[in-house]
Amino acid sequence: MFFAIYLEQTEKKKGGIEMSEVIKSLAIEPKEKKKLIITYAVTIILFIVLYFVTPQNVQESGVLTVAPAAFLLVFIFYTKRILEGLILGTILSYFMIYKGGSAQPIMESIQKTLMSDTFSWFLMVCGTLGGIIALLQYVGASEAFSNFVAKRVKSRRSVLLWTMILGFVIFIDDYINVLIRGTAMAKVTDHYRVSREFLAYVIDSSAAAACIMIPFSTWAIFISGLLEENGLAKAGEGLATYMKTMPFNFYAICSLLILILAIIGVIKPFGPMKKAELEAQACWENAVAEEEQKIQTMQETKALEAAETREETADEKSGKAPKLINFLLPILVLIVVMIYFDIDAVAGIFATVIFMFIFYMIQRLITPEKFAEVFVEGTQDMVFVLLLMLFSLTFADGIDAVGCMDFMIDLGVTYANPNTFAFIVFIIFGCTEFVMGLVWSLYIVAFPIVIPIAANIEADPILTIAAVCSAGIWGSNTCFYVDCTILSAQASGITPFRHGITQLPYALITVALSGLCFLVCGFIL
Fold first, then answer.
1. Were both Cys, which of 31, 69, 159, 173 would link to 435 (CB 3.0–4.6 Å)?
2. pTM for the full predicted model
3. CA distance 295 to 115
4. Which segment, 51-65, 288-302, 353-367, 447-461, is predicted with the most confidence on average?
5. Among positive and negative, which fits the CA dihedral 271, 277, 281, 282?
6. Are the CB atoms for 174 and 472 separated by under 8 Å?
7. 411 in helix, strand or coil?
8. Pick from 142, 134, 23: which is nearest to 84 by CA?
9. Is the dihedral angle over the CA atoms 190, 192, 197, 200 positive or is it negative?
10. What share of the chain is helix, strand, coil (3-state, %, to 5)?
């Protein structure tokens, strides 16, 4: 029972990213008022300074093009308010371009993002996945899987290894990967006193890394198609060319290596993660103390046990006893349909919703009215996630219009040579990814730029492609407002900032190791 109390305390303490978070993220607590007054005063001064120093053609302003990106990072780290930072960063970008003026360019950018294929796909996939997860929880399917895992793990280490390995089982897509694992494993990791921050780190670090290292995922298929479109592989040979880059995808490899070392305890929790782990331990101890106090004051223990037994029996008779099959079959349908339709996540998700409706109705686990109600509630839980993604994409468009990426690329090309080119590509695009969070869009932009340069200076093309792929994983793993970070936080029941700040030190170690690998291979190959 104290496990249930611990869960309640954990949820109260950290909470998920639900509809109320949209309001909470904008609310100002009294102790934060002074900090925010200073922040907004500095922001106003920054706007005024940039108004006078920015040239008419902002793309020719050199280092000033990184001002919106630098502002966003400082704002987020200082205030811990990601949504506001994205909005202000977007406004600053267009302010620099149009020197103030009307708000029409910003509104047009938001409208463009809303109408884009990227956001439309994200809206359909994540909104529907929210409904699927809510249904899995309502019928007890997630609980059944948690119970299944709980019976087979005996320690913190084993439950975290299970969580990581499950990422390779659900390799088909990183969105599906993180949301399902977070839903299924949170209660089990709570039982072994694992902080939600560490759970999010395990989920996030093994999600995109698993997807990009297995050549039958959405990531692999997408990149393979781009290789063919850009003439880097012959028609039908994109996947074969992509597989040649896999041994050199150092960020994914190093990320998994660091993760395993952290799970087995070779790398102890440090930095913000250590604080989160200590908080989780304290939360558990408080739950145990509270339960012991309740046991001491309990007068009718046997009567209580009998009541619980009757309640469990009633649940079983109503057909709502948790069943593992109710979790496994929908996930299997999701994966099979996605593969059948050429890794189409939308087709897989909608087929899964239809299957769940029929399958659960046959078992009388849920009524049609309740099915619709739970599904809608699940999609509503994704509202804050969708808002973050909307303004993340809008901000990326803004700083791209300012010329931030062009400036970074020009800076890197200046020092390019065959031996260090892959290393420079990894660092430059990794840094832009940390700020912009483009991920797949990065691949669309980067391949046509870096491959001709690599051919011109005779740098290794396979190593260069791997460097671009690794930069995308870097962004997916570290950017505070990128899709995978937001969804990992959502699935683990914490805010994106809590997840991002606790994971960042581990990611920086991974970046250092990966950069060293690219540098060494550049001189060897």
1. 69
2. 0.82
3. 57
4. 353-367
5. positive
6. no
7. helix
8. 23
9. negative
10. 80, 0, 20
In whole angstroms, what is the distance from residue 259 CA to residue 253 CA?
Answer: 10
d(CA 328, CA 323): 9
Q: Which amino acid is at 144?
A: A
What pLDDT sits at residue 313?
38
- Read off the tokens for 85: 């930072």
The amino acid present at 396, given as its one-letter code, is: A
Question: 100 CB contacts (<8 Å, ≥6 apart)?
Answer: 51
Token readout for 404 is 């931030």
CA angle 327, 330, 333 (to 5 degrees): 145
Polymer length of the chain:
525
218/223 Cα distance (integer angstroms)? 9
**Which residue in 507, 503, 495 sits closest to 471, CA to CA?**
507
Look up residue 306 and give its two tokens: 């009998």
- Average pLDDT for 369-394: 91
**What integer pLDDT is reported at residue 285 of this predicted model?**
57
Q: Which residue has the tokens 């809206």?
A: 123
HSE on the CB side for 505, CA within 13 Å?
13
Output the CA angle 64-65-70, nearest 5 degrees.
80
Q: If we measure between CA atoms, which residue out of 207, 211, 158 comes closest to residue 182? A: 207
CA distance 177 to 116: 24
Whole-number Å distance between alpha carbons of 272 and 505: 8
Task: Give dist(CA 5, CA 288) in Å, integer.
Answer: 8
List CB contacts of 73: < 8 A, sequence separation 6 or more: 435
DSSP three-state, residue 320: coil
485 and 389 in contact (C-beta within 8 Å)? no
CA contacts within 13 A on the Cβ side of 267: 18
User: What secondary structure, in 3-state letters, does 57-123 show?
Assistant: CHHHCHHHHHHHHHHHHHHHHHHCCHHHHHHHHHHHHHHHHHCCCCCHHHHHHHHHHHHCHHHHHHH
Confidence of residue 221 (pLDDT cuts 50, 70, 90): confident
For 482: left if phi > 0, alpha if psi spans -120 to 50, otherwise beta; the answer is beta
Please tell me the distance from the alpha carbon of residue 272 to that of residue 282, in angstroms, as a whole number.
Answer: 16
